[in-house]
């Protein structure tokens, strides 16, 4: 559990920083615009960790895939990379941007969609880091 929390802590900060570093912000902003204007859901290209277009794929690799692989390599916790692949390839696109998905204590669905319209809710999987660093906007009220 400690490795999982450490990994989500790192991804939280990478995602948060991606909103401020100029070149990365430009790529990440494209992902935000795309999600707000297109329907999302599982597609076969998710198996290759390729999102809807090249900028969204570059964003995914810069903010999640590569950091996850580096984290797994440094810590030796390869189960995190396997867990992440299953999440990204089979689950993420079906629930992360689905406004009907709203399970408390998970950062997908309505929780994540608030992020696409504001400077809140950066966390992946669990809202713990958003709560700790006061970047959460609660959708469960």
Keywords, separated by commas or semicolons:
mainly alpha
Share of helix, binned: 55-70%
Mean pLDDT: 85
What's the overall geometry? globular
Give the N-to-C terminal Cα separation: 28 Å
- Radius of gyration, whole Å: 14 Å
Structural account:
By secondary structure, the chain is an all-alpha fold. It is built from six helices and no strands. The protein has helices spanning about 1-15, 20-35, 55-75, 80-95, 110-115, 130. Helix 3 (about 55-75) packs antiparallel against helix 4. The two termini are about 30 Å apart. The mean pLDDT is about 85.
Concise description?
The protein has 141 residues and is mainly alpha-helical. It has helices spanning 2-17, 22-37, 54-75, 78-95, 110-115, 128-132. Helix 1 (2-17) runs antiparallel to helix 3, helix 2 (22-37) crosses helix 3 (54-75) and helix 3 runs antiparallel to helix 4 (78-95).
Topology diagram in text:
Blueprint: H1 2-17, H2 22-37, H3 54-75, H4 78-95, H5 110-115, H6 128-132
Helix pairs in contact: 1-3, 2-3, 3-4
């Amino acid at each position: 559990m400690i490795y999982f929390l450490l990994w989500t802590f790192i991804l939280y900060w990478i995602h948060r920083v991606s909103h401020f570093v100029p070149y990365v912000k430009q790529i990440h902003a494209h992902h935000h615009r795309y999600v707000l204007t297109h329907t999302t859901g599982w597609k076969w290209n998710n198996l290759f960790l390729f999102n809807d277009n090249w900028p969204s794929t570059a964003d995914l690799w810069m903010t999640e895939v590569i950091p996850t692989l580096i984290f797994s390599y440094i810590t030796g916790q390869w189960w995190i990379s396997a867990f992440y692949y299953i999440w990204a390839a089979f689950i993420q696109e079906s629930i992360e941007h689905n406004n009907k998905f709203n399970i408390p204590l998970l950062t997908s669905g309505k929780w994540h969609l608030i992020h696409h319209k504001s400077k809140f809710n950066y966390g992946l999987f669990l809202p713990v880091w958003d709560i700790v660093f006061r970047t959460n906007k609660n959708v469960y009220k």
